[in-house]
Amino acid sequence: MVYIKSDCPQKKSDESECFAFPLGLVELPSMRSDDITKYTLEPLAKHGFTDSYLASNLIGAGSDGASEMLGKHSGVLTKRKQKCPKIILWHCMCHRVKLAIGDAVKSVIQVNHVKSFLDKLYSIFSQSPKPQRELEESSFRVGENKEGT
Fold it and tell me: 134 with 75, same domain?
């Protein structure tokens, strides 16, 4: 998904308000940086954002931190920085938090055991309608017992 975020100053104060809106959902034919660049710029161009406009007004871009996006020599955003010198590139904070939580879960054995157990349960019950039906029936019976019916 390609989003654009804008900072709009308020008429009666020094404060500003941010607006973020989607420009388009992009289906990528491959994860090569050239394809990512081409297909993510299309929604921008479709909405009138020319290369010269982006060069003078684009100030920031975030991504998941993959080398295709932030790679030192051929990353999508690294190439964009060559055309938009003001741009600030960063690794998305939400993605960093997700990675940190994943690392924490891996390092705490008890949590890792629970996660492994839940993953195995999911794989068992997602494979076939019969286990799904049995799980639903057993959970319904447990619910009846708790309510005293």
Answer: no
Cβ atoms of residues 42 and 31 within 8 Å? no
Amino acid (one-letter) located at 17: E
Same domain, 85 and 129: no
Asked, for residue 98, whether it belongs to a domain, the answer is: no
101 contact partners, CB below 8 Å, separation of at least 6? none
Q: Name the residue among 57, 122, 64, 107 with its Cα closest to residue 89.
A: 64
Model pLDDT for residues 36-62, shown as the tens digit of each residue: 989 989 999 999 999 899 988 888 888
pLDDT tens digit string along 60-103? 888 888 888 888 888 899 888 888 888 998 888 888 898 898 88
Q: Containing domain of residue 36, as a range? A: 2-92
What's the number of domains the chain is made of? 2
Please identify, among 48, 64, 92, the residue that sits at the C-terminal boundary of a domain: 92
Residue carrying the six token digits 């994943």: 102
